DNA sequence: CTCAAAATATAGCCCAAGCTATATTTATTA
DNA sequence: TAATAAATATAGCTTGGGCTATATTTTGAG
């Protein structure tokens, strides 16, 4: 039992949940990138790269801290916790796989890169595994 | 010129915009389905199928009306405008194509159906065309 | 070392999307 | 046809995610 097909409501609720973590995923990925590129992640740089105002970035960083993904001290940069760094790595790998899959099925590179930024957050582990298998075929 | 590669900020902003219309797309698709299935779209049925409380559905229908996608009179059902019906058709077709593409690259059917509910809203026309071409190949 | 500039924080606003509780209207049935 | 049940609307709350304006802190010149 335990295995009736998911209802419409289940499916919609699941999509809503994924959406609510999408922004957090993009932030941790970006913070990880900034630290790798420049040694630190300043709020001003995060805001700039995300395309939002500085107070918006500050507020989202506060949420990352609340959720145990980042740390920071006033007027200092932002750092990822272990959990945050692990999430960033997973998110970055998934992002790349999604872009590669889109290109592999014939999506032009620029469209692939643009669409992947939203698509990635809805790709489950099962789908990701399928994408990887598809990319490995020949 | 007009063709520098999109910045990170552009890409993130675009994903945020798509996200803001995702719920409207799901609602018009669902309202169209209900009308096709049962002849009418009651707020209670919309809420039920979306997995939200009734006042939440009422409020979102109000937004659909504000955006010219639906109409309704107090204590009566919900109807789609021409624009709403056209959007519903496009969204439904895109939804099906996304599910088919996922299955075609090896995603198990249930995962495909679940993930498509979120993915669909980020698939651009260019990507959709590529998906269709890929599905038509042999 | 001081002071101006840059970075960050804070205050306060908006809207979307969710909720519960309750009032109102419509539909049904005794 | 009244009374009850069901559907819908409304009020009022929460949180997330955006913004501008401004206060505060840190940094870097001179
Ligand atoms: Mn993204
Ligand atoms: Mn990404
Ligand atoms: Mn959807
Ligand atoms: Mn859909």
UniProtKB/TrEMBL annotation, chains A, B:
It holds the Pfam family Fe_dep_repr_C. The keyword tRNA processing does not apply. GO terms for cellular component: cytoplasm. Residues 1-81 form the HTH dtxR-type domain. The keyword Transport does not apply. InterPro entries: DtxR_MntR_Metal-Reg, Fe_dep_repressor, Fe_dep_repressor_sf, HTH_DTXR, Iron_dep_repressor, WH-like_DNA-bd_sf, WH_DNA-bd_sf. Its main location: cytoplasm. It is found in: Cytoplasm. NCBIfam families: PRK11050.1. PANTHER family: IRON (METAL) DEPENDENT REPRESSOR, DTXR FAMILY, TRANSCRIPTIONAL REGULATOR MNTR. Belongs to the DtxR/MntR family. In the presence of manganese, represses expression of mntH and mntS. Up-regulates expression of mntP. Homodimer. This is Transcriptional regulator MntR. It comes from Albidovulum denitrificans.
